[in-house]
Amino acid sequence: MIELVDVRKVYTRGDSQTVAVDGISLTVAKGEFVSIMGPSGSGKSTMLHLIGALDTPTSGDVVLAGESTAKMGEHALTLFRRQRLGFVFQFFNLLPTMSALENAALPALLNGVPRAQAMERAKTLLDTVGLGKRLDHRPEQLSGGEMQRVAIARALVNTPVVLLADEPTGNLDSTTGAEVLRMLHETTRAKQVTLVMVTHDPSAAKIGDRIIRLKDGRVVTDAA
Predict the structure, then answer these.
(1) Non-local CB neighbours of 55 within 8 Å, separated by 6+ positions
(2) Which of 80, 87, 149, 193 could form a disulfide with 188 if both were Cys (CB 3.0 to 4.6 A apart)?
(3) Cα–Cα–Cα angle for 52, 163, 43, rounded to 5 degrees
């Protein structure tokens, strides 16, 4: 489902260069849950952004669902992200003027799905994550854990093949974080969605099928 082929990412500022990702090659199977760990500056978020086509590698290739992102133009990449990928971030990024249902349905609406169908998809997903009775609540009326559940439903509403999560429990207490992780794992496993999660929390990382540890932009361990 995911293949990185000798991927490098170098950031240039003036005369200095920073190698954020240094020649990483790996594969992730369909339906696999992979946790990425490493110290600050190890390249975790950069690697996630490259997998999610939010950034482009300096060299090498990222292949998603059999398609080379290196061969896509910007318009094709935008469509691919919108139609095939889902994203969950630490700070939820919900629109404050919209209800939970509207927030969850938004990516489908932006993707041209008819409103009634988009709302039904979102409602089904919110039911799945335990928010069937909170559909009309706005973010300010929800707890942190509930907002992250809305974000998970939103990320899944377009039926992505890959879900990317960047510190999804970093803004939650340990109990709520564990519950959100359980729900994220169960929901993606049931739908056979490939999940790649960046985390600094060893207990969160253990929920995955395997843990990839980075240091200085390189893979130092990759084990179940």
Answers:
(1) 9, 46, 49
(2) 193
(3) 45
